[in-house]
Amino acid sequence: AGGIVAVNAEAEGVQEQDGVAIGIRRAVGTRIYTRIQGPLTPSMNITDVSMNVSEKAQIPFLQQGRATISYTVINTGNTRLSADQALRITGLFGQTLAQPTLPRAPELLPGQQMTLVQEWDSVPALNQANIRVEMIAIDAQAGNAVAAGDSTAWLIPWLFLIIVAIIAVLIWLAVRWSRRRGSEPTSVVGVAGTPFPTLAGGAPSAASGRGRAGGSHRKD
Fold first, then answer.
1. What contacts 181, CB < 8 A, 6 or more positions away?
2. To 5 degrees, how large is the angle CA 144–CA 148–CA 150?
3. 83, 91, 116, 218: most buried, per Cβ within 10 A?
4. pLDDT digits over 112-169, tens only?
5. Which carries the bigger pLDDT value, residue 203 or residue 141?
6. What is the rounded distance in angstroms from the CA atom of residue 212 to the CA atom of residue 173?
7. Which pTM was predicted?
8. Residues near 57 by Cβ (< 8 Å), separated by ≥ 6?
9. How far apart are CA 132 and CA 114, in angstroms?
């Protein structure tokens, strides 16, 4: 790969900036490609697939956050490549969370690498993001080059889960205290102020029993 640039021999004008005279010359360039004899081996790799959450959602099913998906494409072959790219993000149970339509990736020369960034505007608060990036470069003369990259990231609203855990513990403590209070024994106060329920219910005492026994004797 190379280029041809045509530049004016003389400056078209002069501009002053901060006391310095700057001459303006116009240039026109064009790219050229030279085909060298030998086998073509198109190939590329996708590395460093990652997600950076810029705006985190805290309430599941009610809020959505924002994130950027980045990945690096490396031309590991000996011919230039211009590839179509696809991005798919799935959740914990395989459901599709995002599948945007992406433009064709910029051209890569042999040995060149480029980091691409894609926006994701519907990041859930609680889920697992399985990121899959695929690229394919089709060339009738050189052949096809295919590459893929994967990454997994957990989306966990820690603040929301901590609040829910605290509320659950408070409810459990309140229920346990209520049950313990309802199971405490209660005493009944008798007629004479005694706490024994048998006497309060009118059971005969020892003194009354002796009175009845004495009244049953016959007097001669």
1. none
2. 175
3. 83
4. 999 999 999 999 999 999 999 999 998 877 889 999 999 999 999 988 889 889 999 9
5. 141
6. 57
7. 0.67
8. 63, 64, 65, 123, 124, 125, 155, 157
9. 18
